[in-house]
Structure to design on (298 residues):
């Protein structure tokens, strides 16, 4: 009997236990980071904004001149089946399209057959609920995010070396996570998250160079609904250091407070009231049928 409880994967049109999933070493997704992907989560047995994640995934494939032999509806059904097979009620669900591999001897991307994979593992937190009660210590990295002129940031991709090195730098400097910057020291994003500041009734978040996070969009929607003003513009690291509140957003954990930047306390040094209000609204939205797809595990 295979163990599906550690997660499941969809490989070669079959659902298998995550530990049995195998891909080719020669796939350009692995050799060249030539891939796009998306991550959606399941919370209390419901997908959150699944169709928005599927849309971003299909748009990314189009921009990278990739395609898969599945429609949006097929993909939705595959992901539902993978989660059901895992029995996980709280899950991290990733869909991936890689370039694949060319014919032997060819270096022509047009010769590649694109490959589709998916996997489901237990929910992943950038900051777990306990950590969220105190807030994260964020390091402003010296590493610059790969510029949008080089890699289209709206296409979810595996160009993560800047952020991976930023994480090592953060740990070396006593921090818990990192945000990478542009040439001018404006904040861009961190490994899998967007960033916001709060000053009075105004939220500010970077406008370009970063991923158009679905949690970022949800936060903007919720903030607007709660009567806050949201500015999307350049956001310098010094502004974040002086802000009332700072938080990060990701599918891997939602809205998570930052209470220290580079060893200095932010605001009152505890998760702020605006952050907490939005955080609560974010999780309440996970019960709203307009935003969720309930799974039937029977
Ligand atoms: C996925 C991702 C985000 C956050 O996007 P969500 O859709 O909110 O999960 C932010 N930055 C990077 C680099 C990402 O890959």
């Amino acid at each position: 009997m295979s163990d599906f409880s550690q997660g499941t994967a969809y490989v070669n049109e079959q659902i298998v236990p995550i530990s049995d999933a195998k891909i080719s070493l020669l796939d350009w997704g692995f050799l060249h980071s030539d891939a796009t992907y998306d991550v959606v989560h399941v919370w209390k047995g419901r997908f959150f904004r699944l169709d928005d994640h599927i849309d971003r995934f299909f748009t990314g494939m189009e921009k990278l001149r990739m395609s898969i032999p599945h429609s949006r509806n097929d993909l939705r059904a595959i992901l539902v089946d993978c989660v059901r097979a895992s029995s996980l009620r709280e899950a991290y669900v990733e869909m991936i399209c890689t370039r694949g591999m060319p014919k032997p001897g060819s270096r022509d991307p047009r010769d590649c057959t694109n490959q589709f994979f998916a996997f489901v593992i237990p929910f992943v937190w950038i900051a777990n609920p306990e950590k969220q009660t105190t807030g994260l210590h964020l390091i402003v990295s010296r590493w610059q995010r790969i510029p949008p002129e080089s890699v289209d940031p709206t296409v979810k991709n595996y160009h993560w070396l800047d952020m991976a090195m930023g994480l090592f730098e953060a740990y070396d400097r006593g921090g818990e996570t990192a945000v990478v910057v542009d040439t001018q020291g404006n904040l861009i994003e961190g490994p899998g998250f967007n960033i916001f500041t709060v000053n009075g009734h105004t939220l500010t978040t970077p406008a370009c160079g970063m991923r158009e996070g679905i949690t970022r969009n949800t936060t903007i929607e919720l903030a607007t609904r709660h009567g806050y003003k949201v500015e999307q513009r350049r956001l310098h690291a010094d502004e974040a250091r002086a802000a009332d509140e700072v938080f990060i957003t990701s599918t891997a954990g939602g809205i998570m407070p930052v209470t220290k930047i580079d060893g200095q306390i932010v605001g009152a040094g505890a998760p702020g009231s605006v952050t907490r209000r939005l955080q609560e609204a974010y999780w309440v939205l996970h019960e709203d049928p307009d935003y969720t797809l309930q799974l039937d595990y029977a």
